[in-house]
Amino acid sequence: MSRHYDVEAVRKEFPAAERITYLDSGFQTPLARPVRAAIDRFLNEGLETAGPKSVWLDRVEQTRLRVARLLGASADEIAFTKNTSESMNIAANALPLRAGDKVLMIHGDHPNNAYAFLNLQRKGVTVAFVPMTDVVNADSLRPYIDASTKAISMSQVTFHAGHRFDVESIGALCAEKNLYFVVDVMQAIGVVPIDAKAMRATFIGSGSHKGLLVPQGLGLLYWDKSRVELEPSYLAAASLAEVPADLIARPDRLEAAPSARRFELGNFNLPAIHALGASLDMIEALGIENIQNHCFDLGDHLISRLDALDVRLVGPRDRQHRAPHIYVIALPAAEWLGHFEENGVRVSPERDGIRVSFGMFNTFADVDRLIEIIQRRGVKPSSRAA
């Protein structure tokens, strides 16, 4: 039973969680009934009326406003993209980086964050990697900044061991040193509170198929609108300040939109945006802080049960430095993944073991079921715990 909301009521909205022990929301969250209903509504409207286009586009803008509220931003700072990777590539290519400039990143962070900037090496941009430790903050990065450093890019929460980096202190460091700051919040959004302004981010990128509960194919991009010098490396009618009414291209009217729409190419993923509207209803009803605290409680219970088995947790243990919902158990994936699958437990293999990732619907019973399956293979409570 959660101390923060009626988790049993929430759980009923996720049929997959009733059929298997689903501990893999860091990969993709199961479909929720309200999210499916929103997609069905869109499909039925298309089937029956060939699509009320103006209504659909109005819903896009309503959802954009709600995404902005989730991030502590304004609606004109939010663009819709395809996924996190596209968002990070848009950001990397919008920064005015030239040969000799340096970007700092965290070693071992998500590869698609790195590739967006490593691709700029063809322009002479250098990417330097800072060691990943359980605690990463401004002091971790300060020694690596020199006159050539122009940007820092990193995740707020790591996918492989649930590190939660101190992005607020790093954002303050970027402001102090006049650096651009690009943050991937894919593993944080929907579970961890995000404040784009407190973070002092230039860009924030994310997908929506984890904490935001939406099927794959929709991404988000926050752009600090005070950074008017940042423009897309591509151009379409949708990204212009003034879209020609007759849709005839005019070489003398190429000014980018003053909003984050400058980074959009048009033709939205409308089913996914409808789904996102429904998922935001669920998240807002529960409250991000409550979802975060519920997941922290689940994590505390997991750590306690693992300690009793003398099974090691990979990554940080302290709430201050760990994500509330991502935990890696030091059990070799090659040896253990099949055992979990055979026993109806859904987890992910990771670099250093088995990743357990919670969603808003998980319960203490799910954790206990996981521990039971570990014990079933012969792992017994240690004498220290007895």
TrEMBL record:
InterPro entries: Aminotrans_V_dom, PyrdxlP-dep_Trfase, PyrdxlP-dep_Trfase_major, PyrdxlP-dep_Trfase_small. Transmembrane segments: none annotated. The keyword Cell membrane does not apply. GO terms for molecular function: lyase activity. Keywords: Lyase, Pyridoxal phosphate. Pfam families: Aminotran_5 (PF00266). Residues 22-370 form the Aminotransferase class V domain. This is Selenocysteine lyase/cysteine desulfurase.
